[in-house]
User: Fold this.
Amino acid sequence: MAAPMLRLCCPGRRWALACIDGCSRHRRGAPNGCTSSRRRGQSSVAQQPFITAQKPRKGEHEWAAVVGLEIHAQISSKSKLFSGSQVHFAAPPNSLVSFFDASLPGTLPVLNRRCVEAAVMTGLALNCRINKKSLFDRKHYFYADLPAGYQITQQRLPIAVNGSLVYSFCAGKNRSQVINKTARVKQIQLEQDSGKSLHDDLRSQTLIDLNRAGVGLLEVVLEPDMSCGEEAATAVRELQLILQALGTSQANMAEGQLRVDANISVHHPGEPLGVRTEVKNLNSARFLAKAIDYEIQRQINELENGGEILNETRSFDSKLGCTIPMRDKEGKQDYRFMPEPNLPPLLLYDTESLPAGADPQQVIDIDRIREQLPELPSVTREKLVQQYGMLPEHSFTLLNEVGLLEFFQNVMKETRAEPKKVTSWVLNTLLGFLKQQNLAVSESPVTPSALAELLNLLDRKAISSSAAKQTDCILHSHQQCVKLLVSPHPRRLLLLSVFLIADILVGVK
Amino acid sequence: MPLKRMHFQFCLQTSYKAAIKVSAALKQGHITPTELCQKCLSIIKKTKFLNAYITVSEEVALKQAEESEKRYKKGHSLGDLDGIPIAVKDNFSTSGIETTCASNMLRGYVPPYNATVVQKLLDQGALLMGKTNLDEFAMGSGSTDGVFGPVKNPWSYSKQYREKRKQKSHCENEDSNWLITGGSSGGSAAAVSAFTCFAALGSDTGGSTRNPAAHCGLVGLKPSYGLVSRHGLIPLVNSMDVPGILTRCVDDAAIVLGVLAGHDPKDSTTIQDPVKPFVLPSLTDVSKLCIGIPKEYLTPELSSEVRSLWSKAANLFESEGAKVIEVSLPHTSYSIVCYHVLCTSEVASNMARFDGLEYGHRCDIDVSTEAMYAATRREGFNDVVRGRILSGNFFLLKENYENYFVKAQKVRRLIANDFVTVFNSGVDVLLTPTTLSEAVPYTEFIKEDNRTRSAQDDIFTQAANMAGLPAVSVPMALSNQGLPIGLQFIGRAFCDQELLTIAKWFEKQVQFPVIQLQELMDDCSSVFENEKLASVSLKQ
Assistant:
């Protein structure tokens, strides 16, 4: 037991290195191809010299990891997938429960149009083929927070299939090299969320909250095209941005609106894939990467020590930083899938197949949804690069930090300063400051207008020739900051004084 | 006797059979809804031994009658059903009224909402007399397997049956020889047959409305799948269940169907197109009709009496100029086994929600959630339900799914296609028996287990559910034993009106006799303490 724990010390780092190599291999092999060709690509490169920075332990390079993801995104909608109850995070327990959600006998599901549209939008954004006919199925298992004893999902014929998720990776020295990678999207299916069980071990009771029961989910299944935690986390982050841009999900992992299950296996390149384990309910990008890397390392250790990988479900203990087998419901079981008899097939139309004189309220037109798709993150980034001559990696950072792009655009609106200068100020100075202070962009004490004014002043060289009083103020704040910060960056110090400057400017005006 | 009373008596004598006529009497003020309601309540009390009702909603009914009376006084009647007493099978959700499905699992369960069909009837001013008995969760064909005990067929106590029995020398103990109603909507059938109400809702998954209708001398209608909302009907097999209608004449069934039919936003399987209310025309000429006689329905188990009545009915159509042809439904013989797989699979799924957590029975065991589930379900369900859950889960297992469920679905398609072929060949309606024979005594019935009985008894009715077609059982004549025998008409999907029009013509030709319960009331004065009331309502 001690051995795998010891190896735990720096698995992330080791894998991050191995993974970068894997990325480039992957790119050369088959960027969008099927598993077999990808494997061939990997095996051919396996003979090539490996990581240069750190010599791997003997035999370690023989392992390749394969990671597939099942991502559950809660659909952002007013009401649930099959009932009229409202969807709200953190409402009082069992306050958003309709008769259907509580599975009262005789109640029937009625499909929420908004959820279908969200699935179509997401499918289109992920380059999927939208199935004009999809079906609903029942997946059975007994669990206290699943009142009907089954979940309505789309097992046989999901609403969208065969798509791709392109995500990008910063690699190389200083992480300045952007590598595009593709994970194939196997399918997107509509399904119901379950309720929540709150276990009170002291009183050996389980309390059930059905507020979440029946909320619409998009299950996005990514093929095993990733090979380490960081890749998986990056892919999930890109999906998150896409969902948020579409408005189909708030995709907030902390609030459980985006949950990830990872299927992980290791094998020798060129050989068949290994037995996989599933790590369930990963609810932060950081834990996702950690859990996957831990699990990869665990499997390698297990196999190298002559052990065997069990096809099992594991959970990630974020405190211990390791995965542990789950012993309850999610063990191997037969879900006894059956067609949902209370829902007719879900039919979608396009401009060609739209029946003449159809009531727009009764039908969903895929082409109309396609026309109304908002700008996707990849396009936004491209625009930033083209419009402002920004480095690609800077465009990533701008989008990855919640609210930062908007901040940047607002500054741009009010300043004549060079875009490069603004980018540098926002990404290095402001973001660095916020991170140091552990603040979100929305919590920034400096408003976009204030930063724009400062940049304008600098641009006009107004600051250097400003009144002595102002300079004194700035200097004064410099001195204060020197005490506060360990290694003050001149710009950061300057930024801190933006507050004061902004005050002064108000006074001047 | 006051004048009004005499009027009342008159109207009951001439028209007790049909809601449509009582409705006219209500409109003319010959009788008030409250009087009618009280009359029915007293009959319910007198016929309590039939075990037709699980719950009698006396207070609700009287209050509704009061409201109805106010409307009539103002001349604002809501329609033909305003003030008409009805009963509802106890597997339809009724707001504020216990809904048990005749199961320990739902004993004490009071739904917070009305099934759409119940709501529609109430919106028309109908008076809800109570919830009727059934086989547990509608699984059965005798109305003998519910936790509240079996339902007794009112015809067991009819003059017609009793006299025939007296003629026979081997007259044993009368009371132990009562007949079953058929099922699973036997409570509803008994309730209508015994005059405790004018119409009742049943449910029909494999024949559960038509079978007891045939045994109790009633009209039993199974509408097209998708014509009537299932919202609030506690399901047996979602893809086959249809709310059924039990009445004493075809016109009444048409009135009730007119109220119930149509799209329900709460049931996605109901038709989108609006359904117009309709009045059945009186068919005078059947010469343009083509009646199909499916040859596969001529089974060896069919009693000779039913068989001869069936051919008599065919001859009747023929003699009136209709074209009567033999047709083939080659896959009918697979219907029973196919139904068994599909039914039990859906049952296994539908019953999964009964875990004792949100509602219904919960056991005392609290060692673990799993232990609680197991004990709750063991205590809550009877052997029939548990047996079906077990086999259904077996068919749904990954390793069995293709071999059983998928195959059964394919066979179901073949069965449905058989009907399409026949109807495309120009047949307007199929004429078949409803049951193998007339009702049998309870003691006889329970010699076989539920599964065997269900398989036998649904033989003529099940295929219509497989195909989603409308079908109606119409009583034709009394058997040699003095018991009703019904025949079934099966129509094209969503051609329920045409089906009922033909059924109405047939009903008029055969002049099925009214049940004579007077005999019973004279004989069993201990049962009917208040003879005066009984005689007022039931005197011929």
Remarks:
- The radius of gyration of chain B is 22 Å.
- The CA atoms of residues 258 and 277 of chain B lie 5 Å apart.
- Residues 398-424 of chain B form the longest helix (27 residues).
